[in-house]
Amino acid sequence: MFFHIVLERNMLLHPRHFGPHLRDKLVAKLMKDVEGTCSGRHGFVVAITGVESVGKGMIRDGTGFVSFPVKYQCVVFRPFKGEVLEAVVTMVNKMGFFAEAGPVQIFVSNHLIPDDMEFQSGDIPNYTTSDGAIKIQKDTEVRLKLIGTRLDATEIFCIGTIKEDYLGVINDPGAAV
Amino acid sequence: MSSSSSDDFADLESELLAISSDESPDDEEVEVEEEELEVEDFENKRIKRQKVEVLEEIEEAQGSTSLGALRQESGASINDDICPHPASVGGMCVVCGEKEVDGSAVPFGYIHKALKIGSQELARMRRADLKSLLQKKKLYLVLDLDHTLLNSTRFLDISPDEGFLMNQTDSLEDIQKGSLFKLDSMHMLTKLRPFVRTFLKEASDMFEMYIYTMGEQSYALEMARLLDPGEVYFNSKVISQSDCTQRHQKGLDVVMGADNAVVILDDTEFVWSKHKENLILMERYHFFASSGRQFGLNFKSLSESSRDEVESDGTLSAILKVLKRVHQSFFNSDNEANLMSRDVRQVLKSVRKEVLKDCKLIFSHIWKREELPENQKLWLMAEQLGATCTTERNQSVTHVVSLEAGTDKAHWARKRGKFLVHPRWIEAANYFWKRQPEEAFELEPPKKP
Predict the structure, then answer these.
(1) What is the tens place of the pLDDT at every residue in B137-169?
(2) Do B134-331 and B356-441 fold alike per CATH?
(3) GO MF terms on file (chain A) (predicted)?
(4) With bands split at pLDDT 50, 70 and 90, how would you rate the model's confidence at A38?
(5) Residues A131, A166: one domain?
(6) Cβ pair A41:B17 closer than 8 A
(7) Is domain B134-331 given the CATH code 3.40.50.1000 in the classification?
(8) Which residues contact B11 (CB under 8 A, 6 or more apart)?
(9) If you measure CA to CA, which chain B residue comes closest to A162?
(10) Which CATH class is domain B356-441?
(11) Where would I find the beta strands (DSSP E) of B193-333?
(12) Which of A6, A44, A81 to mutate to test the interface with B (most CBs of B within 10 A)?
């Protein structure tokens, strides 16, 4: 789920940046530091949409660096247990398959793939129904429900299921060919 | 959605959960009712959920697993212990998503870095996998990289005599066609063993193949890319050093294959101490000079003398023939019904026994007189190859194996018209799984003084 929230961060800036463009430098550095990172609490920072305020800078003893408390608005993406997501399959093996929804990696175990879908090894490993009508392979798009999430400093990892009504393949690139 | 603080994320999560788990029952009557009462407090929902569950239990007598999983996840008090936690990714059970603690789970880093599989699940998967594999008339093949399928050297170790190779490398754009590659990122030069492409192609029809190397993961993956640019053979089946559960040992515990259906190709025997019976020992492929030096060999390397193994007659082609025989005799036995309980180790043993069948060997001047011949490596090797070994000279002896041509037994051999061969004849037969022409290993008669 996406959220638009305000976060705060202490930015350390080197004295060489002090000048008329100080604020620009600060914002540029903020974007570089924060966008694409992950925190267990807020999830994945997708984009910074604005800076609310830049507080008074404090010179750090001994280094000359100055720390500015910056409040900024940003869009974050945080997966929740029970959330339904659409994701692209990245890898299929006998254990199940891995899929990605943006920065989030999701694993769907073969226990949580409908029983009528069986694993087929070969050039393109896939899960297929016995009549061959539905196929999950690399690059297939699936709708899945998250049943467990783990947020680390650098990545978000989830466990998902497609063994429920209205979940499963929503578009199959292999079928079009 | 906007909020200045994120403290309410936790509340949101539990709410979401409650909603999603309430949506799932497939009982229509209840669903309609639910829609009408969409805005209601949490307490009420709880009661209703229990009601739904009772309904489900009555109506869905078959009790599908999805139902079980569902209840688990909704955190309902009934059947809390139903999930066996078969495997985990990043510490979460793959079935129920709960934090799972199971000390016995085996890490499968080569499939996913955080994947662990419990022993029961592993056994179940092995059985299921074996069944489907045998239906396709395939077995498992575990392949070592260095000295078995290829040979690598660091730029630093390239000797002056083989420096010319640096300019003869093949393009990484078209890996399928080349065999000598320069990997700048790893400072390495890699030479694929002749015949390896044909070998992999033909072996893949009979086997599901794994790479298992003591090298690092990055190296292993790079080599897999050279061997299999189309990612047809080794898709998430590249096992490297970090996946081994024991130091300096390779084990089949991380291979998703049942022990009785795995054939191993490796040039080093001791790393497979628990699985010697599955192993086909490979003659080492030393293309680069540095590679031979590591093993104390001091003759000119293949690269320095601009030679290579012969494509059609090298080790890999010989071993491919062995694999074909093993595969054939595994699947062609008469007892068709009992496929699951067949053992490829027995097949290997009996195929090996064919090699020197009908040979009766006597050894001369190979070990000291006081040593027990039955414990000698050569003696055991010959017996494994199906030869009969003896210590008594008689008419039934066919070969005299000796290091010197001037011994009593050697003279006896020449007089009686027996083969007089160097011990390398046995070793060669052991590597090629084929009786070698004796002439090539014959000992020269001693020069008259």
Answers:
(1) 889 999 999 999 999 998 888 888 888 888 888
(2) yes
(3) single-stranded DNA binding; single-stranded RNA binding; translation initiation factor binding
(4) confident
(5) yes
(6) no
(7) yes
(8) none
(9) B66
(10) alpha beta
(11) 207-212, 238-239, 262-266, 279-281
(12) A81
